[in-house]
Amino acid sequence: MRKSLLASAVAATMMAPMAQAITLMETEESKVSMYGRIVLQVVTTDETSEIEDNGSRIGFNISHKIGNDMTAYGRAEFRFKADERTTNNVFSDLRNTFVGVKGNFGDVRVGNFDSVYYSLVTSVFDVPEQSGYVTLDSGSRQSRGDTIAYMNSFGGLKVAVQAKHQPKDEAAGDSQKVSIAAAASYTMDIFTFGVGVNQDKEGMGSGNEVIGASLSVQAMDNLSVYGLFETQDENKDVMALGATFGYGKGDVYTQVAVENFDADGVDDRISYMLGANYKFSRKFYVFGEVFDTDEDGDNWEVTVGARLNF
Asked: How does pLDDT run across 231-259, given as a tens digit for each residue?
């Protein structure tokens, strides 16, 4: 049986440039490509309906062969709001912008990128377009800026470690700090297991480590099921289950998450979502999702939208 499709997606997130790119320039040694997406949706709750942008962006990948066994690469990615006209500050968010070198020794990058913990442990749950992805690290915890990471793969085993630097702040009386994260995943046949820890160092974060593990199973060629457990002292535990079913012209997916809070007087929370998409082509699809949580009563949300990749 083939390896998990979700595991392959995770590997691509860590080790390769963005897919579905348009080549702008290519020589024997260098390549520049552009990619992006426009995502617009209508979100309806018990109080209102609103047209929203959902992560529209444009980005550029650069690669340059240094030698037979080494390549320098970089990425610059910019988000914009596609749901309304903007004349100032058109690009609202600088995302995933970094430079790196990869070769037989592995892959080293520095800059602004998703955490290695997210990439190898929790990204398997990053399926919903809008709401329902519940985790202690969705990619930004002690990452996405002033960060250096090392990644490598050995057959089915992928390992990664990163360090985020916070400079000295004399005005606030803070010394410079470094917060460490490490993660690994292993794929064997239809199973992919991921485990990781994010230091979330005191003074930069909570001071309590985030520890998590995930398991995805390619139960059938078109069916993946996955589970997640995370814990952080003085915060909460997260337990989640999910599944994705490919029906030929798209996917149906669902997730359920339970959050157990450590703080007194804070009730545990259960959330769940169900979604589906229809793919007109490899680059264009429409989607619909329903989300609900028992936090402070009933908090349902319905989202319908469209996504165009380029």
From this structure: 999 889 999 999 999 999 999 999 999 99
> Model pTM?
0.88
Q: Distances from the Cα of 138 to the Cαs of 46, 55, 70, 276, in angstroms? A: 27, 14, 31, 22
CA distance 117 to 139: 7
**Residue 267 tokens, joined:** 């009730």
**Measured CA angle at 185 (ends 180, 191), to 5 deg:** 155
Contacts of 87 (CB under 8 A, 6+ apart): none
| pLDDT digit string, tens, across residues 85-129 | 877 777 878 889 999 999 999 999 999 999 999 999 999 999 999
**Nearest Cα residue to 12 out of 25, 24, 21:** 21
Q: What is the topology classification, in CATH, of domain 5-309? A: Porin (2.40.160)
Residue 98 CB partners (closer than 8 Å, separation 6+): 74, 75, 109, 110, 111, 112, 113
C-alpha span between 97 and 114 (Å, rounded): 10
